[in-house]
Design brief:
The structure holds 2 protein chains of 2 kinds. By secondary structure, chain A is of the alpha+beta class. Chain A has helices spanning 2-10, 72-89, 111-120, 134-143, 181-193, and strands at 35-36, 41-44, 49-51, 59-65, 97-103, 127-131, 149-151, 154-156, 160-164, 169-175. The longest helix of chain A is centred in the middle third of the chain and has 18 residues, at 72-89. Classes of the chains: A alpha+beta, B mainly beta.
């Protein structure tokens, strides 16, 4: 824990008690090994294949979104955009941290639509937006507990973001509604400070 | 919409998305009607309930299997107010007690106080719950006994455990994945009863009651020296206790006020016959003070209205349901009472604050009446309560055998 604190301090991520989104942070998060992160191979907006396990050694923040979402997804995407700025300013992306967003709506989020959405967030190597054809995507979504159902003209799906360590293990699961950019930065610093 | 988006420069689109995010964030932060007394990570029900799930045990202890009952609460249905399904768990003597949804509302975790089991029900089809998994090795994995309240955190369940591995001594919290894989245990210095989290403050409170060995002993033989009287304050992310608050004997339900930024809430002491108010100070430290005495009540449950105007107290010994006006949290007032209800215990308030269901079995070791029922109270705009004559189930007459009704969830 002390090592994590020192690392967080060195990276300048010890946020004030109340973070910018009005969510308090903890400087000493306990990041249990929750489970092995299910591996997958998906296509990014440049039609390049990305395999999760190829990112070993990097911390991965994995979110599930859909581009026509008007509730929680835009909030979390804008917070992740802010987080990316924090990580960039510390030189942590893309070499040490990788941001990934996977669509849960591959029919409407065709390659063009997802690329347009990604462009809105200035996608680059640090943040890759992923999709696949529905039959290939379904088992990936299922392996992260992501189900999708129509609801009031939009889609309903579990509002979660996964933090995966350099060894491919899920170490935190965030709620979209309470996702804190400042806490995520502390958590990432904590994982980066771990040895092995 | 997509074409419109693509015609904009990215910066405008980002601003549009960010603006939308701000509006949506404001909508999320605004007080709104919603189911109360659930984990804030759960998708709250925001429409009239169609079914009520009831976690129950046989009326005759050990005779018959514990079961999740599905009760029709759709007023337009021909089977309104009836048990329409009974999902048995394949074992007896579990002491079915509390249950909780996972954060996505797809599963219900039902805890068994006596046998230290968890029953995980798949409710992805709300009308057709299925028993998906039973965890039998909870003592071995957690090192604790007496599982009480399953509480959702993202992708996981946090369960309060009353005592150590032999049913005595302090308990704690145990964390599992939604599908039942053990993650970690967190010991407490008391007999943990229930946990509540306020994510925006990164604070968790845990209340405390008594050990498993004690609550499974007939009440006449309870030893008050086993009773806990504390509420622990936690740094939730660190899963670390930061402060201990002293209340009175057997601190049961704890409820945070729901308004965004509300830094206070209430709890009840069963052994001390009282309501307590906790408050977080600007430095993050908490105070716990008695808010009201409840003479002769033996409070069993504490529930809240979605607008932070009322809390409801069930008086197991006092045969009452009480509504307390908490509009001024420092000066709470008894607002209304329903009299003459036999050993009321668990309650559940609907998303709109207009209905309150209650059951009347506490524990096999505590129940003194066998008139086991599910009852509905209608709550008027003025906060006055009235028992609904058109809804009610007498569980002594249930086909397949009488049951003791305890915790409820709506869907």
């Amino acid at each position: 824990m002390r090592r994590a604190l020192i690392a967080a301090a060195c990276l300048g991520v010890l946020a004030p008690a109340r973070a910018e989104e009005g969510i308090s942070t903890s400087p000493t998060p306990r990041l249990n090994v929750i489970r092995k992160a299910a591996d997958f191979e998906l296509l990014d907006t440049h039609r390049e294949r990305l395999r999760l396990s190829s990112l070993r050694g990097r911390v991965v923040l994995l979110s599930f979104i859909f581009t026509t979402c008007s509730s929680a997804c835009p909030i979390v995407s804008s917070r992740i955009a802010g987080l990316r700025q924090d990580l960039k300013s510390r030189g942590l992306v893309p070499d040490k941290v990788q941001l990934l967003s996977v669509t849960v709506d591959p029919l409407r989020d065709d390659p063009q639509a997802l690329a347009g959405y990604a462009e809105g967030f200035q996608d680059d190597a640090s943040w890759r937006f992923l999709r696949e054809e529905p039959a290939r995507l379904a088992p990936v979504l299922a392996s992260y507990g992501e189900w999708v159902r129509p609801a009031e003209g939009t889609l309903d799906h579990p509002a979660r973001v996964y933090l995966i360590d350099g060894r491919g293990r899920v170490r935190e699961i965030y709620s979209l509604e309470f996702f804190s950019r400042a806490q995520a930065l502390i958590d990432i610093a904590t994982l980066l400070a771990e040895k092995g | 919409m997509l074409i419109e988006h693509r015609s904009l420069p990215w910066i405008h689109r980002f601003a549009h998305i960010s603006g939308l995010a701000l509006l949506t964030a404001a909508a999320i932060a605004a007080p709104a009607a919603g189911e109360t007394c659930l984990s804030p990570y759960i998708k709250g029900l925001r429409q009239p309930e169609k079914v009520l799930y009831l976690w129950s045990l046989p009326a005759e202890a050990g005779k018959g299997r514990d079961a999740l009952l599905v009760i029709d609460t759709n007023i337009a249905s021909s089977t309104y107010g009836r048990v329409i399904r009974r999902v048995e768990v394949g074992s007896a003597g579990n002491e079915a007690h509390h249950m909780g949804y996972t954060d996505d509302r797809r599963r219900i975790w039902a805890a068994s106080l006596n046998s230290n089991r968890f029953f995980i029900f798949d409710v992805s089809d709300p009308m057709q719950p299925k028993l998906a998994r039973t965890l039998d090795d909870v003592v071995k994995t957690t090192g604790m006994t007496g599982p009480h309240t399953p509480y959702a955190i993202p992708g996981r369940m946090l369960v309060s455990m009353a005592s150590g591995k032999d049913g005595t001594g302090p308990g704690g919290l145990a964390e599992f994945t939604d599908d039942g894989e053990f993650v970690a245990s967190y010991p407490t210095p008391d007999h943990t009863y229930e946990q509540v989290i306020k994510p925006e403050f990164n604070k968790m409170l845990t209340s405390s009651w008594m050990s498993q060995k004690m609550f499974m002993t007939p009440m006449s033989k309870w030893d008050p020296s086993d009773f806990s009287d504390t509420i622990q304050v936690w740094d939730f992310k660190a899963r670390k206790i930061t402060q201990q608050l002293k209340g009175d004997k057997v601190m049961l339900a704890v409820r945070w006020a729901l308004k965004p930024g509300a830094n206070y809430g209430f709890s009840i002491s069963n052994g001390g016959n009282s309501i307590w108010r906790f408050q977080m100070q600007p430095d993050g430290q908490f105070t716990l003070t008695k808010a009201a005495d409840l003479p002769g009540c033996a409070p069993g449950d504490l529930r809240q209205s979605p607008d932070d105007k009322f809390v409801y107290v069930s008086c197991i010994a006092g045969a009452q349901i009480q509504a307390w006006d908490i509009s001024d949290p420092e000066h709470i007032k008894l607002h209304d009472t329903i009299q003459g209800v036999v050993q009321p215990n668990m309650m559940h308030v609907t998303y709109d604050g207009k209905r309150l269901y209650f059951t009347n079995s506490t524990l096999t070791s505590v129940d003194f009446s066998r008139r086991y029922q599910l009852t509905l109270i209608q709550i008027g705009p003025d906060g006055r309560m009235k028992q609904d004559p058109n809804f009610g189930i007498d569980f002594s007459k249930l086909a397949g055998g009488g049951i003791r009704p305890h915790d409820m969830l709506l869907n």
